[in-house]
Design brief:
Strand content: under 5%
Largest sheet: 2 strands, parallel
Low-confidence stretches: 1-6, 8-27
Number of helices: 5
Shape: elongated
Mean pLDDT: 84
Distance between the termini: 19 Å
Strand order of the largest sheet: 1-2
Radius of gyration: 25 Å
Structural class: mainly alpha
Order of helices and strands: HEHHHEH
């Protein structure tokens, strides 16, 4: 399941400008820069894994509901097609109305499912983001980083593996926010 973090965009918007400032002039020799792969953080942290499992479970439930509705719609469509030559005009009109109503209901259910998935994803990943930002800031201060970037956002084109502190952030996040069975 490919999930994208909701936040970290405000920092990414200023990343290119900040990188230009940091890498220009005498400050460049003193700059210490790191990157965090947010996607990995969400996939590999204990709470991130729980959030992904919850989203997968919700997606599967919604898909099962939608599949049932699609099968009911297909059965009604087949009934309509089979009865075109044999059913009375009023019964065909009734089936046509049911088909129309069921199609509209299916579209609404699909839209509702998508909205619910986005809402839950935003809530779960937003909570992780809010919890991890202070940890990233603490690591930045502790190790003397001038800047820490989201590895794959904000125009970053290259980062040496040595600059990637994702594992450290995941370890600290898991220690500070262990997953509980209720999650």
């Amino acid at each position: 399941m490919n999930v994208k973090p909701i936040g970290f965009r405000a920092a990414a918007a200023t990343a290119a400008v900040l990188a230009g400032v940091l890498l220009a002039g005498p400050v460049a020799a003193q700059s210490k820069i790191a990157v965090v792969e947010v996607e990995r953080l969400l996939q590999e942290s204990a709470r991130g894994q729980n959030a992904v499992q919850e989203l997968t479970r919700l997606r599967d439930e919604k898909q099962a509901e939608l599949t049932t509705r699609q099968e009911q719609l297909a059965a009604l469509q087949q009934q309509y097609n089979d009865g075109r030559l044999t059913l009375a005009e009023d019964r065909l009109a009734e089936l046509e109305k049911q088909l129309e109503d069921m199609t509209i209901d299916l579209r609404r259910a699909q839209d509702d499912a998508n909205r619910e998935m986005q809402k839950v994803q935003g809530e779960r990943f937003g909570a992780i983001e809010q919890a991890v930002l202070p940890i990233i800031a603490q690591v930045g201060r502790e190790f003397g980083y001038t800047a820490i970037f989201n590895k794959f956002q904000g125009g970053l084109l290259f980062a040496a593996d040595a600059a990637d502190i994702t594992n450290l952030i995941i370890e600290r996040y898991n220690a500070a926010y262990p997953a509980t069975p209720a999650e």
